[in-house]
Amino acid sequence: MDNITHALAGCLMGAGALAAMARRGTAITPAIRRTTIAVGMVTAEFPDSDLVYSGDLLGMGQLAYPLHHRGHTHTVVFALLSAVAIWAVARAMSRAARDREVSGVLLWLALAGTLSHLVLDWTNNYGVHPWWPVYRGWFYGDAIFIVEPWLWVVALPPLYFLAVGRVTRALFVLAALAILAASWFLGQVPRPVAAVVTLGMVGWTLANARATPRTQLALGVLGWLVVEGVFFATSRTARREVVRAIGPTFVDVVITPTPGDPFCLRALVVTSDGANYVLTHASVTPFPAVRGAPHCSAPARTAPVGDPDGRPSTATIQWQVSWRARLAELRDLVATNCRAAAAMQYIRVPQWRRNTDGSIELYDARYGDGSFASVTLPRDAAPCPRFVPGWRPPRQDLLASP
């Protein structure tokens, strides 16, 4: 997820921790409030500390970010250890945090904060591998777009009314205006959906304005869970429809919802007959009575590469284009090129093309050619990358020879 979404989750958990302290009879001083909210936000963001070295600090070039972002810092082991470390720092820096009752709540908050980051990142199609070093494989939620407007909508109004201080409230207002502007003007959200998101922000703000602080907190948490639940329900339904339509050649499908619209999803479908690899783009709407697939405009990051798919579309699935290659070509590429083998530790939907200079561009169709998930394989041998973490390739099922 984006970092503002993580911060909003941290703020909601911090507000919940303050409410728990108050119910136990703790007088909430400004110092306790500041420390609690800080612990919630810092821990909710901290797994992204891998950004410090997932640039080119390790000298890996194009491979550094996709191999090391959401890497070792996005594991349960790191989450637990870093939560305890942040809690200890908070106790050392704040006298208020050393109070026994406050300290206990802050420890649970820190643990919830770091683990929430892993859970939220799991919900989209980038995925995480939380069980390292026991298991090095990836897990994908395929349900929430990386910046989901409805999560901001349900969190910002209650946080605004629960906040103390003009500066904090002003920041929440700016965040609300930013997500509404992004919905209208960045081209990722269809205009009718942007209108519904805007009305939702207004209506949710009015509902929270009349509520008690306890109800505001409950509305924020409940709203967040409802948004997640709706997107997961439609995503899982869409996946079942694709699996049913494809049949025995099905390998995988990557589901990406339109931001703000759980009823319109983009699908990247991977199929194979054992000799050929096929990637098909489609739009899926799991509930055609709400919106039929031909009227679903799930935006892709880049224009899909391929030829028109020959399958007849239905009210549920609108087939678009397919791209085909020999599976042996991919296996040979990985077996003979160490950079390709490293790239396949994160590439879930491989696609490649040969450049005029003889080099090969290998990329993940989830993000398109030329994205952060692309790697150029020179025609001549190149040094093998160092610090390759050894994740289990997402497409190990296709790379293994029969």
State the strand order across the main sheet: 1-2-3-5-4
Identify the quaternary structure here. single chain
Specify the structural class.
Answer: alpha+beta
Question: β content, as a range?
Answer: 5-15%
Overall geometry comes to globular
The rounded distance between the terminal residues' Cα atoms is 37 Å
Radius of gyration: 23 Å
Q: Regions with pLDDT < 50 over 5+ consecutive residues?
A: none
Q: Kindly give the count of domains.
A: 3
So how many helices?
12
The arrangement of helices and strands along the chain is HHHHHHHHHEEEEEHHEEEH
Largest sheet, in brief, is: 5 strands, antiparallel
Task: Quickly describe the structure.
With 402 residues, the protein is an alpha+beta fold. The chain has 12 helices and 8 strands.
What does this structure look like?
By secondary structure, this protein is an alpha+beta fold. It folds into three domains: 1-122, no CATH class; 234-325, no CATH class; 326-399, no CATH class. 47% of the residues lie in helices and 14% in strands. It has twelve helices and eight strands. It has helices at 3-23, 30-45, 64-68, 76-93, 100-122, 149-162, 166-185, 191-209, 213-246, 327-336, 338-343, 396-399; strands at 250-258, 261-272, 276-284, 307-308, 317-326, 350-354, 360-364, 374-377. A five-stranded antiparallel β-sheet has the order 1-2-3-5-4. A three-stranded antiparallel β-sheet has the order 6-7-8. Helix 6 (149-162) packs parallel to helix 8 (191-209).
